[in-house]
Design a protein that fits this description.
Structural class: mainly beta
Helix content: under 10%
Radius of gyration: 22 Å
Shape: globular
Strand content: over 45%
Order of helices and strands: HHEEEEEEEEEEEEEEEEEEE
Largest sheet: 18 strands, antiparallel, barrel
Distance between the termini: 32 Å
């Protein structure tokens, strides 16, 4: 969208080909479909106290970020690119130097107002796989890194239950593996990790299979006008503070997976067609309150560059929500959209798109607004972005369908080649569409996460982070009271042995 004659990305989040910065957060969820990944934690009836508390925590987190930036930013500024280099280049995949491209997980495109861009889900991204967001160790076609991480965590509410609030110190051993493929027309990043947890105070049984994470992102450009991408995030969480689906259900174990393949076709020099599919799965274990669901989605978007700065869009999105456990009727959502993106400056882009969402639920029909709005600002040492989205989806294990609203901001600082800092506050509110639903949902959740990693050498990486979670169940909800406040602080070291080689050809 930098010029009328170049490709126009549907999603303003999409990083340009020269700068490793993603707008994300638009977890964040993925999109109406991925709103189960939204994170918000506010409380009804205690607004002033909560706002004061959250403000204090926000100031504290910002102070930590400021200290980190103050230490390392001078080195980053010393390496600042020339002003002319900030402009997006129109080189093809073959002409572009693969080593100069940003990590593939920060290039995955996202579509449409019911598909809120959130990949790779920075608000709950596992620190043990943060190496996938950094530059490869070697400029080779393939980098393969088996790892073992050891971390220590303080958790002041390990059961995510304010009625049974207990703290503990958790030692975690995390074996994992990360793979990066960087070819002229093909990029892939994939990682898997398993957490084995030991509890110092015995608040919960030790568990060798407490949590498994899998992250995948890939982009293939077979021709200069055709792009295929796929993103997948998997989480199986059996820890006492499990949050599968993005909301807290008193630590009920569960599994979530979101698969999102997309295709982009540059129809003409100024026109682009993007199509996407989503399959989102939520499964819960045991006899808890979690509601299983499958969400299927189709997104489409046609964009046209009217001027070098202005890009108009029209689209259509379809969503089908299947509540497999029988907790209510299934729902279909149809959502025509109209929107635009506008490049205010060479480094600042804003965008808005949306339209009416027509939902059929049992014998009822609803019309609600669907909206996706945000901005992305490229900085000399990173990127800052923010967004607001409203769409129909599910509220994690609380079920649905629900009218979801999410607001999020992301500060991504790849300050040096071997240092990355991520700061991400997010808020989500979910309310049932109908008062006739078996389970009425009225829940708010707020999360604030700060993560950092520094690669000391090819074999050792230090990482750490802080996260805050606050969830409140509203007065109109008929679900159990799952109010929760949680603070977590984690520090660790990761050991890995990299293998790098070329594929040839």
């Amino acid at each position: 969208m930098e010029r009328a004659g170049q490709r126009h990305r549907v999603d303003m989040l999409r990083v340009d080909s020269r700068h490793p910065i993603a707008l994300n957060e638009m977890h964040v969820a993925t999109k109406g479909l991925n709103h189960e990944n939204g994170r918000a934690r506010h409380g009804g009836g205690t607004t002033q106290v909560i706002l004061t508390t959250l403000t204090a925590r926000l100031i504290g987190a910002c102070t930590v970020v400021g200290i980190i930036v103050g230490v390392v930013a001078p080195h980053a500024w010393a390496q600042e690119v020339r002003p002319g280099a900030m402009r997006q280049q129109t080189t093809s995949a073959e002409e572009e130097e693969p080593a100069s491209r940003p990590p593939v997980l920060l290039r995955i495109p996202a579509l449409g107002p019911t598909l809120v861009p959130s990949y790779p889900g920075l608000s709950n991204y596992p620190l043990e796989l943060i190496g996938l967001l950094m530059s490869p160790l070697e400029r080779r076609d393939v980098n393969l890194v088996p790892t073992i991480s050891i971390s220590e965590e303080f958790n002041d509410n390990i059961f995510l239950n304010n009625a049974n609030k207990r703290y503990d110190f958790i030692t975690t051993f995390t074996p994992g593996i990360m793979a990066l493929v960087n070819r002229p027309r093909f990029q892939l990043a994939a990682g898997f990790s398993n957490d084995a947890q030991l509890y110092a105070r015995g608040s919960s049984p030790n568990d060798g299979l407490a949590r498994q994470n899998f992250v995948l992102g890939s982009i293939w450009e077979p021709t200069p006008v055709l792009t295929f991408a796929v993103a997948d995030t998997f989480l199986r969480d059996q820890s006492p503070d499990a949050t599968a689906g993005g909301f807290a259900l008193g630590g009920q174990a569960g599994m979530s997976n979101v698969l999102n393949p997309t295709m982009g076709w540059q129809v003409g020099s100024q026109t682009r067609l993007d199509l996407g599919l989503i399959y989102s799965v939520l499964r819960f274990e045991g006899q808890g309150a979690g509601i299983d669901s499958d969400t299927y989605g189709l997104t489409s978007n046609l964009s046209h560059g009217f001027t070098p700065r202005f890009n108009g869009m029209v689209g259509y999105n379809f969503t089908y929500i299947d509540l497999r456990s029988g907790h209510g009727d299934n729902a279909t959502v149809q959502n025509p959209t109209l929107g635009f993106t506008y490049r205010v400056t060479p480094t600042l882009t804003v965008g808005v798109d949306g339209g009416p969402a027509f939902t059929h639920l049992g014998n009822e029909d609803f019309i609600t607004p669907a909206l996706n709005a945000g901005f992305s600002q490229r900085l000399p040492f990173g990127n800052v972005s923010a967004y607001y989205a409203r769409s129909i989806g599910v509220a994690g294990g609380f079920g649905g369908p629900t009218d979801n609203q999410t607001a999020s901001a992301t500060l991504l600082l790849p300050l040096l080649k071997d240092l990355i800092v991520i700061f991400n506050p997010a808020w989500t509110k979910a309310e049932s569409l109908s008062d006739q639903q078996i389970e009425r949902v009225d829940v708010k959740i707020f999360t604030l996460t700060l993560g950092a990693a520094y690669r000391v050498n090819p074999y050792i990486m230090l990482f750490g982070g802080y996260s805050f979670l606050q969830q409140r169940v509203g007065q109109f909800s008929t679900t159990q009271d799952f109010d929760a406040d949680q603070n977590r602080v984690k520090f660790g070291v990761q050991f890995g042995y990299p293998f790098a080689f070329d594929l040839g050809g």
